[in-house]
Amino acid sequence: MKIEWKKAVGLAAAVAMIVPMAACGANGGDSNAADGSKPSETQSANLTVWGPSEDSEWLKDMEEAFGKAHPEYKVTWKNSVVAEGDAAKTVKTDPTAAADVYMFANDQLGDLLDQNAIAPVNDVVAQQVKEQNSQTMVDSVTGTDGKIYGVPYTSNTYFMYYNKDKFSADDVKSLDTMLEKGKVAYPLSNSWYIPAFYLGAGMTMFGPKGTDAKAGIDFGPNADAVSEALVKLVANPNFTNDDGTLGLAGLKNGTLDAYFSGSWDAANVQKALGDKYGAATVPTFKAGDKDYQMKALAGSKAIGMNPNTKAPEVASAFAAFLGSTEAQKKHWEMRQIIPSDKTLTNLEGMSTSPYVQAQLDTIAKTSVAQPTISAMSAWWTPAETFGKALVSKQVNDGNVKQKTADFMASVKKDVANKQ
């Protein structure tokens, strides 16, 4: 069901009284009535909004549109530049003085909750989030209490870029097939990328929704087989470990035919490959005698509301407004930010952009929501250490099972220390 602009913001405002705070604005205007009617007096509010510098014009346009859609609110806006990735760090300095509404990367949700710096959305906004987004996107902003914190507006994951002169659409479905026909780079020493293999073969991180700290990280029964497959991968002369620069550089100079990255590299890849530019979701890989589908970690960027805001009704309505269907459409038109809204798959320019379909396919079919709980921090260092040991061949055929056992024990110990 499509959430229309006016419908989304109207519903958000109508039930803002659900927010467990005073429902009046900064200057004490009346809140909406229970039947959804507008207040008899204009409600004044001061709202501070944080977003990245690249979104300054989009935010200004959305603030103007919000004012037209909500004549019952008289808002004085203050905008400050804070990138999505810096939201939690900036909030930490003083949550009570932070922005009323801010854009954030969902992997910061645990920190924001620990700081009491993000409020759960109300029931109607939660319904908006569920109707607009895939389950992965909903999970990306769901706390350990089962409540939704924030309104997603774009997904964040990685997929594969490739040279169409080297690989066919069928070739890129299998990593093993690709390695027979061309040169492939993958960031195996990067702890955000290496779990794709283990997750594909059955590993789980903190339960089915990624919110159960007690469930820990369970490598499942196939961990040894996956590690053995990765030892073979490193030994393959057609494989290159991407340190974050080699993949794109290799595509440009022709020494590589495929590498894994995200939407942030799309323009550079298109420039490097021209008509040969292709993109696809992560492929399958063989471990032992079985084929497994790689599963990329996925998250979102979302709009959050500060529970310390003095204008909860207006802030709630504006957060829902920024994540609405029409706002996401405008975001694509202005900056090519891929919408998380499931109804916005045929916007002009999207169907002709290979990376858009690759990202959408990854989110829908070949991803796992990245856990946001603080215990997830136990993964990054052991995984990076193991990945680097694989690449340097310190993990090899002679010791792979023991090294895998050591890796799992290290993760388990660090998880226990976080609980």
From TrEMBL:
<dbReference type="Pfam" id="PF13416">
    <property type="entry name" value="SBP_bac_8"/>
</dbReference>
<dbReference type="GO" id="GO:0042956">
    <property type="term" value="P:maltodextrin transmembrane transport"/>
</dbReference>
<comment type="similarity">
    <text>Belongs to the bacterial solute-binding protein 1 family.</text>
</comment>
<dbReference type="InterPro" id="IPR006059">
    <property type="entry name" value="SBP"/>
</dbReference>
<dbReference type="GO" id="GO:1901982">
    <property type="term" value="F:maltose binding"/>
</dbReference>
<keyword id="KW-0732">Signal</keyword>
<feature type="compositionally biased region" description="Low complexity">
    <location>
        <begin position="28"/>
        <end position="37"/>
    </location>
</feature>
<protein>
    <submittedName>
        <fullName>Extracellular solute-binding protein</fullName>
    </submittedName>
</protein>
<keyword id="KW-0813">Transport</keyword>
<feature type="signal peptide">
    <location>
        <begin position="1"/>
        <end position="22"/>
    </location>
</feature>
<dbReference type="GO" id="GO:0055052">
    <property type="term" value="C:ATP-binding cassette (ABC) transporter complex, substrate-binding subunit-containing"/>
</dbReference>
<dbReference type="GO" id="GO:0015768">
    <property type="term" value="P:maltose transport"/>
</dbReference>
<feature type="region of interest" description="Disordered">
    <location>
        <begin position="28"/>
        <end position="48"/>
    </location>
</feature>
